[in-house]
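Milestone M4 deliverable, item 7.
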Amino acid sequence: MLYERVGHLRAGRADSVRIDARGLYYRELNEMVRAEIAAGAREIHLDNVNGQYYIGSGLKADVKIIIDGVPGNDLGAFMDGPTIVVLGNGQDNIGNTMNSGKIVVHGHAGDVLGYGMRGGKLFVREEVGYRVGIHMKGYQAQVPTLVAGGSAGDFLGEYMAGGILVVLGLKGNPTALNVLWFDPIHSDSTGRMLTSLRKKVLWHGTLKPFLGYARDQLRRLDDGMSVHGKGGKPSGKWAAHVLRILWQGLELAETGDLPKRMTYGITG
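Output delivered:
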């Protein structure tokens, strides 16, 4: 089925539309998206996307586009207003010269993201490639914001002339995640934004570093090795740290939240 219209009808058309992009040439798919927006659609689901270029490029509308699959290059280029959510990975040049709106990628993304970005927000949950944020620029109320949850390649922010560029380097790193869950003594608007989005950086792989750290430390103990690179020996402090990381990982898996404090007690 190429089309599925759901939701409330407005003038014979649906507010929410689902399009199967399987096998569609990128021009044909983008023409369909524009036609549905012109007809009144406010939410468009694109299924089976496989590398089609320019999705959302140049759009100026109050619309949300949800993409199931991997969109091609220049996703949301020159975009002014829409929200795009990618339920997977993205490719290169996402948000190229974007003016306003929001793009969220629930996976990895490629090179040259946010090139010349003038406004709007771009969030990538995992790693990003090379030359991310180059030539970003902001002016007065226009503050482009790009946040990557993982690591970034070389030439990050090259020739950047404004905006906000954040690389969290999380990858489930327990120390980095703890910072997002602590109650800050002082925080500006960017810090408050990151804290409010902290649960969005969690995914099924977040638990691995917690359990992996505890497993590695216990292996070192069993093998008679030092517990860190400087030759440290096991101590009560070390044991408490390993228990805290293990406990936090288990609580995170069970509740989806990261506990901040652990009370230690010894019973005889």
